[in-house]
Automatic annotation (TrEMBL):
Gene3D superfamilies: 3.90.1200.10, Phosphorylase Kinase, domain 1 (3.30.200.20). It comes from Halovulum dunhuangense. This is Phosphotransferase family protein. It comes from the Bacteria. Keywords: Transferase.
Length: 344
């Protein structure tokens, strides 16, 4: 409880929020969520209803990491435009208030599922959930960044080349021990960068089931969360990230679908999911996913290395979980090598 109190000085948050949210005057209770490993997240019970506050973690942070300001901007651009997101209320960039930037958004009802097998749902509802994930992803990528005020949200073109450079630098800045397989993966990705095809979209940056809320009765997505990695980029980056996650083992840490009978579960195969996405985008043929999935493995390994470094430095929101997650990073590099070999 002391940690939560340190991360969220309620009296200061309360004072700053007055006059910025209709009907708000008091925070009656604040509970830190178990999720939100990257950015500490709180459920606020207030006289204006239930709200959600997300802030950066304390301590020294990597450049451009934990960008709650970007999250707030993209929520503001997307709200009411066909991609389900919470209504953003206000952003505070004055670090004197809570020690870091933070924003407040509405609380959206829905189930958050960390296990992509979605246990407890019927086969029909599970199939509907996966199809709506596909629909939301296609809808997101169909939006014109210029039309929603995000023309400057990232540099268009050469997305994978720029991301490879960025995450290589992030990985090396947080490296704690040698990882030859990661170095080999970086080399492979550099040698197999796809040619520029002109496709630019707003990409989520971490598209997977546990970053969504959904209605467990219908499988309909109620909110897409965690936009801190969003940017202008190539749409196959998001699709590759989702396909990548499914290659991992089942379990609370890896959260994959390796070995799951998807047909019996109502979960589409990789090929069927990619084909449905391509159909919704109006493409004549499904895309080649070899590079996008390999890149997604690499980026997740780099992210987890950053989580491990924060834990070792004492800056993690949940230190025990961060150490466990960070230790899993090399497995993503190994799986990337397996994916590349299978596609050769």
């Amino acid at each position: 409880m002391a940690e939560a109190a340190d991360l969220l000085p309620v009296a200061r948050a309360e004072e700053w929020l007055r006059g910025r949210i209709p009907g708000f005057s008091r925070i009656h209770a604040a509970q830190k969520t178990a999720t939100g490993q990257s950015n500490p997240t709180f459920i606020l019970e207030t006289d204006a209803g239930r709200l959600v506050l997300r802030r950066k973690p304390p301590g020294r942070l990597l450049k451009s990491a934990h960008a709650v300001e970007r999250e707030y901007r993209v929520l503001s651009a997307l709200h009411g435009r066909g991609v389900p997101v919470p209504k953003p209320w206000c952003l505070c960039e004055d670090e004197a208030v809570l020690g870091t930037a933070f924003f407040v958004m509405e609380h959206v009802a829905g189930r958050c599922e960390n296990d992509p097998r979605a246990p407890g749902l019927s086969r029909w509802t599970r199939a509907a959930l996966y199809d709506d994930m596909n629909r939301c992803l296609a809808a997101l990528h169909a939006l014109d960044p210029d039309a929603i005020g995000l023309s400057d949200f990232g540099r268009p073109g050469d997305y994978f080349a720029r991301q490879l450079s960025r995450w290589t630098a992030q990985y090396r800045a947080s490296q704690t021990e040698p990882q030859p397989q990661m170095e080999a993966l970086i080399d492979w990705l550099g040698a197999h960068l796809p040619p520029e095809d002109g496709m630019v979209a707003l990409v989520h940056g971490d598209w997977r089931l546990d970053n969504l809320l959904f209605d467990p009765a219908s499988g309909r997505i109620t909110a897409v969360l965690d936009w801190e990695l969003s940017t202008l980029g190539h749409p196959l980056a998001d699709l590759g990230a989702q396909i990548m996650q499914w290659q991992m083992p089942v379990g609370p840490d890896s959260r994959g679908l390796d070995g799951v009978d998807r047909e019996a579960s109502g979960i589409p195969s990789d090929a069927a999911y990619v084909a449905r996405y391509a159909e919704r985008r109006g493409w004549r043929a499904p895309p080649d996913m070899r590079f996008p999935v390999a890149f997604a493995f690499f980026r997740m390994a780099a992210i987890l290395q950053g989580v491990r470094k924060r834990a070792l430095d004492g800056n993690a929101s949940n230190p025990e979980k961060a150490l466990r997650m960070g230790a899993y990073g090399p497995e993503f590099a190994r799986r990337a090598t397996r994916w590349i070999s299978a596609g050769s």
